Amino acid sequence: MNYISNTHHELTPTNPVIETILSRSAAKYYDTSATLSDDQIRDLVRIGTSAPTSFHLQNWRFIAVRTPEAKARLRPIAWNQPAITEAAVTFIIVGRFADASTVPARLAPVVEAGIMPAHLVPEWEAPARSLYDNQPQRQRDEAVRSATFGTAAIIYAARSLGFGSTPMIGFDAEAVHREFGLAEDEIPVMLLTVGPERAGNWPQKPRLPLADVLSFA
Ligand SMILES: Cc1cc2nc3c(=O)[nH]c(=O)nc-3n(C[C@H](O)[C@H](O)[C@H](O)COP(=O)(O)O)c2cc1C
Q: Architecture of 28-198 per CATH?
């Protein structure tokens, strides 16, 4: 059994999930001849959508940019980053402003599945309304939070399948919004390149010491 090294005697055993997380790094160089099938892309996004969202809003959308034509439209409005055209696929991770009126529709399948009793639906909608109604900053924050969780799930799923990935903020948000037909209540939160790698990528960079980022309360 392998353990995560720490200074104490209570050792955390590693497992494939932890190894996947710890071995991920941002991929710059991709196998330019590699493609992912639409079914592989669907699988990645299906896994991504298993991530949690506030009130189960699922306020996200994923645009898989994978044809040469679409990549050529995206690259110039993404700081001309070569990975956009070199990676098998670049996802435009779209966050939608949180809209509490969608809660009943989002929860209907949960009730249908017998997970949640129907009488609880208004008990979720009411606090969602108090949180988000007429609160544009919070609506937008939630778009970013949800999209980020979904992105993270795709990143680690991709890693576990042997694909590299890089989240990217280096793009012109207004241009992406316009060029890819986003709605008024949507923002391009991130781009995420995914695909088989080629040689030359850096390993994961060292992190700040835990003492700098962790405090106990
Ligand atoms: C929100 C976000 C935006 C990023 N934007 C870019 C980008 O536009 N281009 C790029 O090459 N890397 C981008 N990165 C990758 C970071 O530079 C990288 O994750 C960081 O240097 C740590 O490297 P490591 O994860 O490989 O250890 C981004 C990462 C995050 C989380």
A: 3-Layer(aba) Sandwich (3.40)
